[in-house]
Predict the 3D structure of the following.
Amino acid sequence: MAPLAVSLGDPAGIGPEIIAATWRQHGEALRNEAPFFVVGGKSVLDAIFRRLHGAGRGCTAEIAEPAEALEVFRDRLPI
């Protein structure tokens, strides 16, 4: 199954916060669904994770190709 792409949206908007909050609050359930990756700035999401949850880089993984999302999705949010 090919992973889905989710747009980060405007880095100054609410999209990054919604993505980070959803991953942290519902990550376990999401990991059992169709894998996806975020298209956007990793540094933006790392900063949101640090601000909202006290976690940062360990929550995300930078990928170069969509297929790489399948390798990291169970443990980290692919970007």
Q: What stands out?
A: DSSP finds three helices and four strands in the chain. Helices lie at 15-31, 42-53, 69-72. The two ends are 18 Å apart (CA to CA). The chain has a mean pLDDT of 88.
